[in-house]
Design a protein that fits this description.
By secondary structure, this protein is mostly beta strands. It has one domain: Jelly Rolls (Sandwich), CATH 2.60.120. It is 5% helix and 36% strand. Strands 1, 3, 6, 7 and 9 form a five-stranded antiparallel sheet that branches. The chain is globular, with a radius of gyration of 20 Å.
């Protein structure tokens, strides 16, 4: 019986993603965020938004909410994707009700299921008609203006995941 080859890979990180198999991965920071003081009773208010600054789709791998100054009132803050700056079709894919009554670092996004069913959201390229904005919403009529926090989003360009022009490795068992 021959020895199996677990994975044969050639990787040149100095080459482009299309020829090397290397993927770009980076964090985007939204510093100096705060809670809102006056919310519409029973409604949702967009307090921050940001259009994807790049002309390509980004897969959101992870998110961190860094609460530097807590607020005793639970502002029920969601972070999700929206179609425009006014929060049309906004979701809570990134954070669904951040716990803002404690200072610390909190992780967001959908936990990956063992079976591979946990989906990651895609922040669509600038100018797309859907999901091209990250939108931060404070729900309900609560004053949580003393809340201070930073949001960090870890992304990878979607096109880096799609290249099928090269084969990076093979599994051979004899």
């Amino acid at each position: 019986m021959a020895n199996p080859t677990a994975l044969a890979m050639q990787l040149d990180v100095s080459a482009g993603v299309d020829s090397s198999g290397a993927c770009r991965e980076f964090w985007i920071k939204f510093p100096g965020l705060r809670g809102a003081s006056d919310q519409d009773a029973g409604g949702n208010d967009d307090i921050y938004y940001c259009e994807n600054p790049y002309s390509e789709d980004l897969v959101i791998l992870d998110a961190l909410a860094v609460i530097t100054t807590l607020d005793a009132d639970d502002g029920d803050i969601d972070v999700g994707l929206a179609d425009d700056a006014t929060g049309t079709n906004v979701g809570a894919e990134i954070f669904d009700s951040i716990v803002n009554t404690a200072a610390g670092v909190f992780e967001g996004t959908v936990a990956q299921a063992i079976a591979g069913t946990g989906a990651k959201c895609i922040w669509k390229a600038k100018g797309s008609t859907t999901d091209s904005f990250i939108d931060i919403v404070q729900n309900g009529d609560v004053d949580c203006s003393s809340l201070r926090w930073n949001l960090l989003i870890k992304v990878i360009p979607h096109k880096d995941l799609l290249n099928s022009a090269i084969e990076l490795g093979v599994i051979a068992v004899a």
